[in-house]
Design goal:
There is one protein chain. This protein is an all-alpha fold. The protein has helices spanning about 5-10, 25-35, 50-55, 75-85, 90-110, 110-145. The chain has a domain at about 75-145. This is IFM10 protein.
């Protein structure tokens, strides 16, 4: 009959396989009735040593990949529009607006890594534009209040 066990045990030549126990005719009838395994019912169901090792040596793990939600990526769109209209220092507000629009496009294409990178760039240009424009406005107010002719 066909040998039972895993492929590693079946693929061995007959000389290397462990000897199967010899059964008396009376016990063969008992095995035919109570055996629930498929294949040769005259042999007792001996678990393969490879299957037993797999059960004891492997530790089953479940890997769950969590992708960030596209709504969590901030595009700084309103801040970019404000900088473009009111504080467009050396066109930095325009560049920030361009990167904000790129973030929206990449979010629609589900390119989250690219959207995050462009969002960081848009934030950087918005911060720079806001800071430099605010600094220039403060300087203008200082020079209007205290003109250079007083010094």
């Amino acid at each position: 009959g066909p040998p039972q066990g895993c492929f590693a045990c079946i693929a061995k030549p007959p000389a290397l396989r462990p000897p199967s126990p010899v059964l008396a005719p009376a016990s063969a009838g008992y095995l035919m009735e109570s055996s629930s395994c498929k294949g040769d019912s005259l042999r007792p169901a001996v678990p393969c040593k490879h299957l037993v090792e797999k059960k004891t040596m492997t530790n089953p793990t479940t890997v769950i990949e969590i992708y960030p939600d596209t709504t969590e990526v901030n595009d700084y769109y309103l801040w970019s529009i404000f900088n473009f209209v009111y504080l467009n220092f050396c066109c930095l507000g325009f560049i920030a607006l361009a990167y904000s629009l790129k973030v929206r496009d990449k979010k629609l294409l589900n390119d989250l890594n690219g959207a995050v990178e462009d969002a960081k760039t848009a934030r950087l240009f918005n911060i720079t534009s806001s800071a430099l424009a605010t600094f220039c406005i403060i300087l203008i107010f200082i020079f209007l209040r205290y003109p250079l002719t007083d010094y």
